[in-house]
Amino acid sequence: MEYVILAIAIVVLAVATGVFFLVRGARRAVPPPRAPEAPKAPEAPRGGTAVIEEEEVVAPPTRAPTPEAPPAPPALEIPPPSAGRLIRLRARLSRSQNALGKTLLTLLSRDTLDDDAWDEIEDTLVQADVGVAPSRQIVDDLRTKVKVYGTRSPGEVRGLLKDELLAQIGKDWDRSLRTEPHGAQPAIILVVGVNGTGKTTTCGKLARVLIGDGRTVLLGAADTFRAAAADQLETWGSRVGAEVVRREEGTDPASVAFEAVKKGIEDTVDTVIVDTAGRLHTKTGLMDELGKVKRVVEKQAQVDEVILVLDATTGQNGLRQARVFAEVVNVTGIALTKLDGTAKGGIVIAVQRELGVPVKLVGLGEGPDDLAPFDPEGFVDAILGD
Ligand SMILES: Nc1nc2c(ncn2[C@@H]2O[C@H](COP(=O)(O)OP(=O)(O)OP(=O)(O)O)[C@@H](O)[C@H]2O)c(=O)[nH]1
């Protein structure tokens, strides 16, 4: 019996061992699960119109190109404010005008002031473009004062002459430029004058004066007869951040002026300066042109200033031009350019008398900040020297 139990136990153990190895072997034989196959791209149907569906193409990861730094915009210039400009430019004024003052002071200091001496004084004034009538008046006034005062120390002579010149130039004119916006409407300045007088340059310099005083400015290149004028204006504007409205050469100047004012209103700039084309071909032509510019601008905004640019070196010829412009448009102020290049500063007196409007600005050089508000006292001091 014992042998039977032992035999059964051995058989059970053998069977169990066999089952264990069988199961293990079977597990090893199972292949690993396969990765799912990528779906096949649908085949284009043969014949008919092939519809090409966009496949999503996954680009291999590439390193993002480093963006090239855009060229740095030119740094905007910050022009100096208008205050004190004539003082800064006084040396230039003295250089050009001092000979006139010296001649007059020397003549007036003579021991005896006879008729010949007074004639010489008058001639000196006429030659300095003061004009015949104002020169005579200055001489008459001085003669009377010299008689009244009797003695003539150098200081007294200087004082007399200074008072007389100031009286002729006029201390009481309103020489301020109306450049303040009217609420949301910009102030509008039309700049007129014959080409070559420094008109475009004056527009650019004036923009700098205003920007120097903290204003925003838009320039209108309505001188469409010379493409270079618009280029010139653009150069001026880009230096100080003033936008320029320009159109192709030959465009109707009035339409450019209109566009400029429209843009100025949209952008709520403080002041719009319009450079006009002032061809003195015929008076009627000029009248039509400038009249139209002004009318068209006035459909949108009020014109605050019409500045006539006059070249101080052109003397009587310049005065004739001024007269024609004044007949065509309502000039409100004069910009007298190139005063640094002439000893004939007397044109200030002559042109104001001729047009009945004040000199508001003077150009004293080709530099960008060589335009100054006109100040009679500073001007006379420059003529007479210290
Ligand atoms: N010395 C001096 N030169 C000046 C002055 N103002 C302007 N100029 C020069 O005069 C020349 C003519 O100036 P522009 O501004 O081109 O004259 P413009 O009247 O606009 O002429 P267009 O553009 O043809 O209409 C330029 O060389 C200026 O630099 C000034 O006050 N003094």
TrEMBL record:
GTP binds at residues 193-200, 275-279, 337-340. The keyword Methyltransferase does not apply. InterPro entries: AAA+_ATPase, P-loop_NTPase, Signal_recog_particl_SRP54_hlx, SR_rcpt_FtsY, SRP/SRP_N, SRP54_GTPase_dom, SRP54_N_sf. It is found in: Cell membrane; Cytoplasm. Residues 30-81 are annotated as: Disordered. Part of the signal recognition particle protein translocation system, which is composed of SRP and FtsY. This is Signal recognition particle receptor FtsY.
